[in-house]
Amino acid sequence: MAERARTRSGERSVNGADPVLVEIVEGTLASVEKEVETAIARTARSPMIRDAHDFRAGIHDVRLRKLTGRSYSALVQPVVRDFPVAGMNPGDVFFHNDVYLSEGGIGHLPDLCVTVPVFHDGAVVAFVQAFGHHDDIGGAVPGSMPSHARSVFEEGLMVPPIKLWDRGVPNRAALTIMTRNSRMPDSLAGDLDAECSACLMGARRLGELFDRYGREAVEDCFDAIISKTTETFRRELLARIPEGTHVWEDYAEHDGVDEPRLHTQRMTLTVDHSAEVPLVIDFTGTSPQAKGPINHAGDYADGVFLKKWLAPILRNLAETPERMAELDVNEGVVPLIEMRFPEKGTLLTPIFPAPTNARTFVILRLLGVLAGVLAKATGGRMPADQETIRYTGVYGDDAGGTPYLMREVLGGGSGGRWYADGEDTIHVVPDSRNIPVEFAESRWPFRVERLGLAQDSGGPGLYRGGLGYDKHLRMLRDASFMSIADRSILSCWGVNGGRAGRPFVVEIEGREMEGLVDDSPVRAGEVIRVRTTGGGGWGSPLERDPALVAADVRDGKVSAEGARDDYGVVLHGSRDDLRVDAEATALRRAELRALLPARAPFFDRGPGFPSLSGGLPYAEVDFM
């Protein structure tokens, strides 16, 4: 064990690290991570990176452990696998985007990852890393996300770990190959330069920390930071899950190739508080890999990426929402979770070269599967289902004949919680945002005629699901529409009596689009109407305070028809002077309660589920 750091009084702390220095180091790590992300946002060129903020940064120690928890990040494992630490030099920058050679840290080819080693006294002591979703890396369609891909070779240029900068000198040949394969070469070059420069800056900042306090003291602090997370999660969060085995599953609805069907993601959670590893997550029962691009290569490096990806859901078990917001996720969660994967050839264990560009249909659905299985285990003390990432956009030529690509990641509603309504138009990717209307209209040939909340999209409940977006684009030139989106048939589920939210819908002049679209033509003058998903509701809507329902109607979040049909609340008067008819409301709620089944499932999946399940209104695992 490393020699313990001395406190300012000269005494050694009992846990191996000076507690004051631990706070300093932890704050410095968070500051460096934030500074790296800020530098990228200010210097990148593409709207996806600069404006939508679809990128992340992270700091890892020389043992490849993730130290920061504000944001998720990729992995350093594939870099050190191919480039031993002993051969690294100051000024080196490593690059990769190969899904199958990333140890599970990269989900699809547009996510380009750069890694910079941090040096102290001539030795590598840490790593600064960033990865972001770039405009285009080649492949069959603009944006490198072909919705009907049958092979990863259709999705773009694959780059295994390479040395992109050598001792501060960029590898021009590699950069030329990558930009030559991109439809947006200037954006790609600018974004990569931003990420490399920001990570090199972050490495210098982190090196100063080691210079100031010494390697041994700083690494003791790293150990303390990670250990604190391990013990906090074990003591405050995992202790709230009853021991035993709990099972649930959810589904992706289509893969872009086959007809829509239920692509199962099944999770068996076993909890044993006396075990060294108290949580075992078994994915046996997950469907075979899809022909289309919804697969996720998650079974590498013992699933270490998925452990950190799923762990934020556990924060919902915190005693209060305020405490939940204080908890970060770093490598400390890894020793608490064991992942058990089915054999090769499933949605989570695809075999190269299975396509993966729409892997959000699986990896984001897994967040909901864990939330669902924990809801069963805890009697509902988890939020209902939330929105997932969807990419929508248009591409074509502008008035000058120059090709353009507008792609946006619109958010949706989060699920109702046992203590509050869901949030409207949030995004599951930290710090991501929609593209500002003024910027979009000045850059691309369309007008934004509406950007507001999608009325009635949130699942009804004692605590209502959050609302999705309602956005209308009027095209000024002929173009092509593209979409990578699920929840266009299935809905975000409600829990504990709460109802499902409304699904994702896109219409072009009355023509309803599928969730996976590459090149649907849009004529000048036509309007694209996008409504994103609403979160599921929590608890029975017939128990919601009628005054809150009336407030939702006044705010335009719920229609008067929705108030009557979903909540059993009868209102009179104009929108500005609504009054609850107490007697009529009591009668209406009695009528709706009489229609409820004697034995209701714990989860409500919405009206789309029977269309894919052979008519079954719910799954076998939906009952408590």
Automatic annotation (TrEMBL):
It is an enzyme of class 3 (hydrolase). It comes from the Bacteria. This is 5-oxoprolinase (ATP-hydrolyzing). Its EC number is 3.5.2.9. GO terms for cellular component: cytosol. Residues 18-541 form the Hydantoinase B/oxoprolinase domain. GO terms for biological process: glutathione metabolic process. The keyword Cell inner membrane does not apply. It holds the Pfam family Hydantoinase_B. InterPro entries: Hydantoinase_B, Oxoprolinase-like. Keywords: Hydrolase. GO terms for molecular function: 5-oxoprolinase (ATP-hydrolyzing) activity.
